[in-house]
UniProtKB/TrEMBL annotation:
Protein's UniProt name: enoyl-[acyl-carrier-protein] reductase
Entry's localization field: Mitochondrion
Domain of life: Eukaryota
Organism of derivation: Brassica napus (Rape)
Keyword Lipid biosynthesis: yes
Catalytic function, reaction form: a 2,3-saturated acyl-[ACP] + NADP(+) = a (2E)-enoyl-[ACP] + NADPH + H(+)
EC class of the enzyme, as a word: oxidoreductase
Main localization of the protein described in the UniProt heading: mitochondrion
Family: Belongs to the zinc-containing alcohol dehydrogenase family. Quinone oxidoreductase subfamily.
Lineage, uppermost ranks: Eukaryota, Viridiplantae, Streptophyta, Embryophyta, Tracheophyta
SUPFAM superfamilies: GroES-like, NAD(P)-binding Rossmann-fold domains
Keywords attached to this entry: Fatty acid biosynthesis, Fatty acid metabolism, Lipid biosynthesis, Lipid metabolism, Mitochondrion, NADP, Oxidoreductase, Transit peptide
Location of the Enoyl reductase (ER) domain: 55-353
EC number annotated for this UniProt entry: 1.3.1.104
Length: 355
């Protein structure tokens, strides 16, 4: 069978396949191992987690049966194998993002699947240009999760400030998948990382886990309630680049670490609090504030470059040089996985739905 992952660099052409994760079909025919051309053929019916209005995912999502979809000549009928629940998926459902798919919509944005014939299990119908063939030796959980968080980490490292071996960067949200990937990708380049985590139960364990990944310094927000945070750097150079995915006070802490002329890149706002910047940060430190949204970058015709980076990241994962914790959850336990992804039961690994 041909292993495929959904390429997020191509816009969807059908509503039912614009965000195609969390879907399962109950048919069971024999799979084939190659792409086929179909003509006036319908896919089997499927099941999907959909939302018809924006709001809290645990109240607006529901399981529905989807009718067959026409498989056109250049379409591929794919059995989904696994798909994660990302914070960005939750934000889309909640309506936080100003750009979001029209409702009704299917939750999710990335995943991995196999090419199947008409009549087999868990189908997604999509034009073949949307899919990216991958090496089947790559672990399923990485193939399903590589195109959003790790790709975000890689692009932010390469797109804003030219860092060399011996330089440093600072980030909040360091325990996130993006944060963990930043630590490991930076380490491969000889770049030191200063990492900020929230004060909560398990912070000591989180600190040790980040150190094991290669973090140079890890501070809780309360540890940074000092007059001069740079005094905590020791022999590390002042960072020229900072990443913010939290907002509020955590963003201010990133700014305090930056050297004169430094840049802070915001790619999320988990606290839902605004970023407050002092006048002196602009006048006397000449700091630059930038933003990054992966979907916007991918819309710039970056399909070929995106696929090359995906292969690079999957190679690192396969070699054990890029890793993060995931939890595989069967599709019929989706409500449990959603509660964990929403943080209802404390910090949990990345939830990956299997079909």
């Amino acid at each position: 069978m041909t292993a495929l992952m959904k390429s997020v660099g191509v816009q969807a052409l059908k509503l039912l396949s614009s965000a195609v994760n969390f879907r399962m079909n109950q048919c069971g025919e024999t799979p084939i191992g190659c792409l086929r051309s179909f003509s006036t053929v319908m896919s089997p019916p499927s099941k999907a987690i959909v939302y018809e209005q924006h709001g809290s995912p645990d109240s607006v999502t529901r399981l529905v049966n989807l009718p067959p979809v026409e498989v056109r000549d250049n379409d591929v009928c794919v059995k989904m194998i696994a798909a994660p629940i990302n914070p960005s998926d939750i934000n889309r459902i909640e309506g936080v993002y100003p750009v979001r798919p029209p409702v009704p919509a299917i939750g999710g944005y990335e995943g991995v699947g196999e090419v199947y014939a008409v009549g087999s299990k868990s189908f997604v119908v999509k034009e073949e240009s949307v899919w990216h063939k991958i090496d089947k030796s790559c672990p399923m959980e990485y193939a399903a999760t590589i195109t959003v968080n790790p790709l975000t980490a890689l692009r932010m490292l390469e797109d804003f400030v030219s860092l060399a071996s011996g330089d440093s960067l600072v980030q909040n949200g360091a325990t996130s998948i993006v944060g963990q990937c930043v630590i490991q990708l930076a380490r491969l380049r000889g770049i030191s990382t200063i990492n900020i985590i929230r004060d909560r139960a398990g912070s000591d364990e989180a600190r040790e886990n980040l150190k094991a990944l290669g973090a140079d310094q890890v501070f809780s927000e309360s540890q940074l309630n000092v007059k001069n945070v740079k005094s905590l750097l020791g022999e590390l150079p002042e960072p020229a680049l900072g990443f913010n995915c939290v907002g509020g006070n955590a963003a201010s802490l990133v700014l305090k670490f930056l050297r004169e002329g430094g840049t802070m890149v915001t790619y999320g706002g988990m606290s839902k609090k605004p970023i407050t910047v002092s006048t002196t940060s602009f006048i006397f430190k000449d700091l630059e504030l930038r933003g990054f949204w992966l979907q916007n970058w991918l819309s710039l015709g970056k399909v070929k470059e995106c696929r090359e980076m995906i292969d690079y990241l999957l190679g690192l994962a396969r070699d054990g040089k890029l890793k993060y914790e995931t939890e595989l959850v069967p599709f019929d336990e989706f409500p449990v996985a959603l509660d964990k992804a929403l943080g209802k039961v404390g910090r949990q690994p990345k939830q990956v739905i299997t079909f």
